[in-house]
Amino acid sequence: MNYPISYPLAKFFSALGAKLIIRIDFIHDKEADVFVATSRDIQGLVIEAASYAELQNEIKETIATLAELNNDKNSIHTDVLLTDHIIIA
Question: Rounded to whole angstroms, how far apart are CA atoms 30 and 40?
């Protein structure tokens, strides 16, 4: 079972074994030629990297640390699976 971390009762469902979904928004800054990731779900998540692959690696390393710093003790043991949903506007 998957459950968005921003929904009510996320910690409850996490304790029952549900995987929490974190929304991360990506943009490519053409002027600086970098990829930037931000999230409303994880306070403090703002990452910049030269490539998309590098950005994904940084996200995996950062999410568990930020969850722990934000006092979300249920997220200390975190496995990160990134899926792409590309929207062109």
Answer: 23
- Look at residue 41 in the predicted model and tell me its pLDDT: 87
Write out the E strands in 22-75: 25-29, 34-38, 46-49
Distance CA 12, CA 54 (A): 33
Domains in the chain, ordered, with CATH?
A: 2-75 (3.30.2390.10)
Look up residue 19 and give its two tokens: 């995987």
Q: What share of the chain is helix, strand, coil (3-state, %, to 5)?
A: 30, 20, 45
Mean pLDDT in order along the chain per 10 residues (89 residues)? 89 88 89 93 90 91 77 58 65
Confidence (pLDDT) at 86: 64
- Both tokens assigned to 57: 């690696």
Question: How far, in Å, CA of 17 to CA of 87, rounded?
Answer: 30
